[in-house]
Amino acid sequence: MLLEVKDIHVAYGDIEAVCGVSFSLEKDELVSIIGANGAGKTSILNSIMGIFPPRKGSIIFKGRDITAMPAHQRARIGIRIVPERSRLFPRLTVYENLLTGVYGLRKKIPVDKRISWLYGMFPILKERRGQLANTLSGGEQQQLSIARALISDPELLLVDEVSMGLMPKLVEQVFGILKQLNEEHGLTILLVEQNAFASLNISTRGYVLETGTCALSGSAAELMDNPRVQEVYLGH
Q1: How many CB atoms are closer than 10 A to CB 65?
Q2: DSSP-derived secondary structure letter, 143
Q3: Cα–Cα distance for residue pair 11/233, rounded to 1 Å
Q4: Which DSSP letter does residue 132 get?
Q5: 188-193 and 30-34: which strand pairing?
Q6: CA 8 – CA 55 distance, rounded (Å)
Q7: Do residues 20 and 173 touch, judged by C-beta distance below 8 A?
Q8: Average model confidence (pLDDT) for the chain?
């Protein structure tokens, strides 16, 4: 088991955003957590990354309890996050933003080789490598955010609302990249999304989050066939 999340509770003051959620990921899986805005999806990712540790429960990565581990140490052991709305450094170039992904790492990364690989995966970034991040389109910024997380060669990629604000054509493109990373490069991905159809369509399994609790779980196909999921999340 690569990741085990056990009965986590996340609260902001008196408001409990996540109430006893448990799930797991095997190595090489692509798993989705779907749910409406405010369901607690981002809070779960922030807890796994160590940005906002859970009030209760535990997070196990590769058999090691990392519940109390600081975020920068989690990044060093192979967990990276693609945050909601990209969160790039707007006044740095594409190339400089990529380099921030290896800042503080202890393991040696063949940076030039990784950047060359990323430029092959995201050709537009090679084209735009000297441009400031704030001059990129929304889709280009999202690709740069993913590439920045990938440069350190992580074992687990957390992806937060990658489709937000993108046109349908760009959504399809970005999800295609995530599917390729998983299927061709064996990257384990945990994806949280409001766009249930797009995320389940590329996932092996999924969880449905409702008001901080896990309401449903199953294979992606089972969830897409579930009448409740179809009615509430797929618009059928």
Answers
A1: 12
A2: H
A3: 25
A4: B
A5: parallel
A6: 7
A7: no
A8: 92
The angle, 0 to 180 degrees and rounded to 10, between the axes of the packed helices 138-150 and 168-185 is 20
Give the tens place of pLDDT for each residue, 151-186.
999 999 999 998 888 888 888 988 999 999 999 999
How far is Cα 122 from Cα 95, in angstroms, rounded to an integer? 12
Biggest alpha carbon distance in the chain?
49
Q: Is 111 exposed, middle or buried (0-12, 13-18, 19+ CB in 10 A)?
A: middle
Q: What is the C-alpha separation between 11 and 53, in angstroms, rounded?
A: 9
Euclidean distance between the first and the last CA atom of the chain, given in angstroms as a whole number: 35
Same domain, 72 and 177: yes
pLDDT mean over 10-28: 94
Structure letter (DSSP) for residue 1: -
Q: How many domains does the chain have?
A: 2
Distance CA 151, CA 75 (A): 12
Same domain, 148 and 164: no
Q: Which residues lie across from 8 on neighbouring strands?
A: 21
Q: C-alpha distances in angstroms, 125 versus 115, 136, 171, 233?
A: 10, 10, 17, 33
Handedness of CA 186, 27, 70, 174 (dihedral sign): positive
Q: What is residue 172's three-state secondary structure?
A: helix
State the pLDDT confidence band at 107, using cuts at 50, 70 and 90: low
CATH code where residue 193 lies: 3.40.50.300
pTM over 0.90: yes
Is 142 within 8 Å of 162 (Cβ atoms)? Answer: yes
The domain in which residue 162 lies consists of: 1-78+156-236
User: What is the rounded radius of gyration, in angstroms, for the C-alpha atoms of the chain?
Assistant: 17
